[in-house]
Each structure stands twice: as structure tokens, then as C-alpha cells.
Please model this.
Amino acid sequence: MDGAEANNVFSVQQLTEGLSESADPIFHLPEFVLEKNYREVGFNLFLLRLPNVLLFILTLLGFFWWGKKLFGRSTILLTILVVASTFLVVPLSKFAIYDVWLLAFQLLGFTALILLLKQAIWKWRILFWIFTISAVFIEPKSALIFSFGMWLFLLFAHPKGKKLISFFDGAMWLAAFSLAYFKGGFFTAGSGYIFHYAHTKFGHYIIANLIGVLPWFAFFPAAIWDLIKKLKKREEMAIISFAFLLFSILSFGLVLQFALAFLIAKQLENYFKPNYPNANLVKSFAVLNLLFTFLLIAFLLLSGYDQFAEIGFRSKMRVGGVYWAFGFLAVIGLFAESKKMIVGGMTLSGMLVMLLFLTQIVPLLENYRNLPQKLVAEIENISFGKTPDVYLSGASFSKERHAIRNDIYLKAKNIQYEYPEESDSLQNKTGIFLFDEAAFIKLDTNLWEDYKINQFSGRYFVFDAEQKILILKR
Model:
């Protein structure tokens, strides 16, 4: 647990204990669900994350059910398959983060908007506004840039855009912007999100999304080139695809993965049609992608050995070898024009790599960065006859990640904790004292002679190469 998820769980802990109020001035659905779930199940990561997983599955079902009416069953199934084998959406959907909620309502809102464009009936109009207002309740800035921007663009750019305008729509947009204003406007902290305007650089966001579709990247340049050519001809599907891609990028959300997957799926379908014009472009980038990943895997093998010695080298070799082998199979399929080899190779290179990453690499990373769990384990090993007080001192504990993660694990164990301003202020307190190295250096050891502080006493623990923690028992 780290970053956005740790922030969310820590926030609901404070809410359930009455130590704080919601940071959102108006009802916030993801926080509401997480808080209610935490009250019922406590600090159970599986059950805290379960609502997001179920929401993601329902989103895929909704996208398939309504999307097949617009784009065809084959295109939607391929889009879902591409998304399922990417490195971003599926892994992140299992965490208790708010990005998944925003993705759900933005994606289904896009589908409802295009259905309204095709058939201007109240059913689709109401559905569009349900998803749009729900997204505004979650993250106003992203929701309005995505939904209002796309609505406005299609209103003027699409031949049937006039179907999107009515007095009801004008009133609803006024309500949506008013809701956004009362929820804090366009300047929210975004601490519950992996991707957010407040803390994510645009370049990092784009790179992360391109890495996400890396198994299918061979079709991406062809998709962009094909989109440009068809936009010049003002083809209807090109206008819709461009709007989906553009406002997904501007929204800073996971919905961009679906926009990229949709474009890739269309190219994959067209690849096997006669006289497909971009076949050489796809093959060229497939080979370049294979060479790039070979060099990347070589670098990762060296870094794996440097970080985790032999076990790191072996684990990363398994992951990299599987990815490269199935990627090579897909390249052979492109030249042999075998749809099974292309789809199978690219799908497995994504899915199996994520599976191996979660089972081979993540345990190593967790062992490298599981400071909070180790702290709790060391605290529980010391017998006080009662719940001990824990005092944390030093800059390392004030950093957002470590502070929040420690709070979560300590509170989950019902351990009282405090962040004193000065290390020396602890001299008259009883309990367990946790210092980082910088705080320990500043410590006046004359006040602590009775504790026999030294690294051979069994109370001086080195958890990683950079951070040293001192545990003292009084």
C-alpha cells in the first residue's frame, strides 16, 4: 500500500475515528463507499479493494453492452482484450484509488454521448447526464474537461452534432458547472489519484500511458497516421475517435488507455483486410519495439542484480524472457499474416508479464520497501504488558509516504503514536522510540546513557541502504 491508496485509507481511518472531516465539501461517492467498507471490514486490504474491482468489471460489461451497438461486437471485444493485456488499467483497478471510479463514469458517459449522437432519444440523454454528473461528483476538473469538451467539439465538428443541444442540456451544464464550483472548483488536491493535474506532470502521464500499451505499440503509429488521413476527409468515425483521444489526454485519467486501445483495435481489424495501407508501418514498429524491449530487458537484468543480487536477476529474467518471447511470436504473426499468432502473442506478452511481475518482482519490491510492516513487527515483539506508545522522530517520518503508511499500520494494530518536534523531548516519556539516522545524530546521548545505545544491542535495525531506524525500549 502506498501513495494514493494509502492517502485514501488514512483519510477514512480519520473519518471513522472522528479525528477529521471529509476533505470534500460535497458528497464524494468513492470516499463514501470506502468509509462504509472500512467501518464494516476494518483494515482488510482485500475487502477494501474489492469494490473497485467489481466496479471495473461492471464498467467493462457496460462498455461491451452499449458499445457493440455503436462500433460492432468485434471492435469492442478487441478493445477490451487490449485493455486487459496492458500494463496500467488492470493492475491499478485492484487498488482502492479514485482513478477507477472516474474511469468508469467517463467511459460510460462517452458511450452514452455517442449513442445520443446516433439516436437522439431521452433514454441516451438521461444516461449521459447520469454518468456525467456522477463524474463531476468525483473529480470536477477532469470530468468537465472530458465531457463538456467532447460534447462541445462534437456539437460543431460532427455532421449530426445538433442532436446534442437542447434546453435541458443547457440547464444540466449550468448545474454541472455549479456543482463543480461548490465542490472546490478546478483546484482539488488529487491525493486520492494516481494521475491528477495537481501532482502529475503531463510528460510523465503520456509516457506512462504509452508504456501501458507497449505490447500493442506496433499498431499505435499506424492508428495515429490513419486517424490524421481520415480526419482530413472528415469521416464520421475519425471525428469521434479524435474527440475521444483528445479529451482523454486532457482529462488526465485512465480513460486514455481505452482511447488508445480503441484505436489499436480498429487497426488490428483492418490489418487483415485486403489492401491495408499501413502494413509496412506496423511491421516496422513491431521490429523496433522488439529491439527496444531487448535493450530495456538487458538494463533491467543489470539493475535487478544490483538491487536484489541473484534472485533479482533471475526474477527479472523470467519476466523479460516471457515478454520478449511472446512479442517475437507476434512479430512472426505479422509477417505470416496469422491473426491467432498476433493476437495471442501480444495478449500473452501483456497478461503473463503482469502475472509474473506480481508474483516474482512485487514480493522483492515489498521486501525492499516494507518499512511500516517491519516497524509493527518489531513493536509487537517487545512485551510491555499493554499497548505501547510509539514516538517517531526525524524528517524521514514526516515525508508523506512514510508518515501515512506508518499511520495506517500502527492504527490498524491499535498502537498509539506521536510525532514530537524534538528528539530530546522524549526523555521523560515511556514507550518505544523510533528515530531516523538524522534525528539520532542530533540526539543528546548524555540523556540516554541508561539505554546503552549501540548497534550491537539488538535495538539498532537497518531496513534499507538509505534509511536507518533506531528502536529503543524504555
Summary: DSSP finds 19 helices and five strands in the chain. The chain has three domains: 3-193, 279-369, 371-473.
